[in-house]
From TrEMBL:
One family name in Pfam for this protein: Aminotran_4
Signal peptide: none
Family in the record: Belongs to the class-IV pyridoxal-phosphate-dependent aminotransferase family.
MF annotations from Gene Ontology: lyase activity
Taxon lineage: Bacteria, Bacillati, Actinomycetota, Actinomycetes, Micrococcales
InterPro entries: Aminotrans_IV, Aminotransferase-like, BCAT-like_C, BCAT-like_N, Class-IV_PLP-Dep_Aminotrnsfr
Gene3D superfamilies: 3.30.470.10, D-amino Acid Aminotransferase, subunit A, domain 2
Protein's name in the database: Aminodeoxychorismate lyase
Organism: Microbacterium schleiferi
Length: 294
């Protein structure tokens, strides 16, 4: 949906000790061109981003998103973001959010070719209405990610644990899922392990135990999954990170794809095999995810 507010940021050093960043922010017309044609984010997808859910003006889990932004920057050899500056930018943008659900995007690009600094900006846009998806659920297919579970450690230059701007593969996987009659996909490794969805983490339930694939380099550590595990622990459930076999998916008691804006989407079928769902549990979970939880 159309961006409603945009702020360009002049990034300061990661360890700069300042409290006021107003002179490093410039609000720009979100409908007008704002980037140079030499931008490496647009030429090469060379940069990182975060999408933060905003509910009634409150940006959710800002610290977890900033931790992941800093982690992605380290993996991509980008200058360390000044977290106080980004926190201030998020607050400045969130002040323009209307009631209801919105999304704030943080973008840190390598900048302009041969230019002096990275380019950074923050946008605000209305969120799509996911109410029906949260209730009705989604059908997913497993898709081969094309590498085995040892690749993230063997080839760190593939940047597999970073939230980079290069989402063309993720979008292609979603189109393939749609071609196969499903709503979404779960990536799996060639040696039979479950990874994540193109834009979400996977959480599985067996009895009173909830698990998610361990974020050991090959996938993102989801901020929504972290929040969900904190909620489940409060409710007295067991949670854990595991290596999960693809062949074990069909026998779970319930499964969700969870992410910052869609929140918890219950999975109704994997590769054509129906999965049990628990509408009341999912409604409670989404009510928690919609509440100010940090
Ligand atoms: N994995 C991938 C590849 C994603 O793109 C996302 C979110 O966009 C997630 C997991 C879930 O992360 P979060 O819960 O922080 O939105």
């Amino acid at each position: 949906m159309a961006t409603s507010y945009a702020l360009m940021i002049q990034p300061v050093d990661g360890d700069a000790d300042r409290a006021d960043f107003a002179d490093t922010f410039a609000s720009v017309d979100p409908a007008a061109p704002a980037l140079s044609v030499g931008e490496l984010s647009t030429q090469r997808g060379d940069g990182i981003f975060e999408s933060i859910g905003v509910v009634d003006g409150h940006p959710q889990e800002v610290d977890a998103h900033l931790d992941r932004l800093a982690h992605s920057a380290r993996i991509c050899d980008l200058p360390a973001p000044n977290l106080a500056q980004w926190r201030a930018a998020i607050a400045a943008v969130a002040a323009h959010a209307p009631a209801g659900e919105s999304v704030i995007k943080l973008i840190l690009s390598r900048g302009i070719e041969h230019g002096p600094t990275p380019t950074a900006w923050v946008t605000l846009a209305p969120a799509a209405d996911f109410t029906a998806v949260r209730e009705r659920g989604i059908r997913v297919v497993t898709l081969d990610r094309g590498y085995d579970s040892t690749v993230p450690a063997r080839a760190p230059w593939l940047l597999l644990g970073a939230k980079t701007l290069s989402y063309a593969v993720n979008m292609a996987a979603l189109r393939e899922a749609h071609r196969r009659g499903a709503d979404d996909a779960i990536f799996v490794t060639t040696d039979g392990f479950v990874l994540e969805a193109p834009t979400a983490s996977l959480v599985l339930r067996r009895g009173d135990r909830f698990t998610t694939p361990a974020p050991t380099g090959g996938i993102l550590h989801g901020t929504t999954q972290l929040s969900m595990f904190a909620y489940l622990q409060e409710c007295g459930y067991e949670t854990g990170y595991e290596q999960i076999l693809t062949e074990s998916l069909a026998s779970v008691d319930a499964a969700w794809l969870v992410s910052s804006v869609r929140l918890a989407a219950p999975i109704t079928a994997i590769d054509g095999t129906s999965l049990p769902t628990d509408a009341a549990f999912t409604a409670d979970l989404n009510a928690y995810l919609l509440s100010p939880r940090d």
